[in-house]
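Q: Structure tokens for this one, please.
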Amino acid sequence: MGFGVFTSKTFLILLSLIFLAAAAALGYVGINLVVTYKQYEKFLQNAYVMLPAIIILAVAVLLFIIGLLGCFSSIQESCCGLGCFITLISIIFAAGVVTLLLGLVYKDKIDSEVEKNMKFLFEQYNGKTAGSSAVDFIQEELQCCGILNYTSWANATFYQTNHTVPQSCCKRNETNCKGKLDALNMINTEGCEKKLEQLIHEVLGFAMLVILAFAVLELLALISLCIIQRKYDREGYQVL
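A: Here is the predicted structure, written as tokens:
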């Protein structure tokens, strides 16, 4: 076996292992996006918000297949397998570019989506419905109160009826908190809208950075694989 072929095989095996690791990383990112969506799905009711996460998970599955195919093709020195390897990487690269574009487009739509759904759920809050549970969850999880701030509750039916804000507005470890606005030291005063938008943007931004990094890796892989394919052709390898 010539040095060039040995180097090519070693590179392909290394590249395949990188793709297997990338599949695991993307799977983690995709699942993290889905979990975040599920936690706050009452505030993100449009299905398009899930598109980046779905594509990321699909890309992770394809990367896993590519990694296995790359290892097999390298060991068997199969030009046919190598051709499939190149084709799948091309598909995955295109999917990554689409995901980046979708993420950038929908990132700007998230704020209006959150604002609209949050306003509706806070107005309908009564402490008993599923929507009320979603409001309590976000206030407890993000340690916030109201939409813009705690004063947002002043015009809500719940406050006008009970003259208190929900218990979920209380700070953690404040056992004597009754939700009274004359005891602001016991309740969270920051609004939930900005906190939720910031959380979603951070998760989506991290996902976009990961996708961008893999897109660059895939582009370099395509260039390298084309060079290796030409090397195989010159050295007289036959398609298996």
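A few notes: The helical segments are 3-39, 51-76, 79-123, 130-142, 157-162, 192-234. The mean pLDDT is 76.
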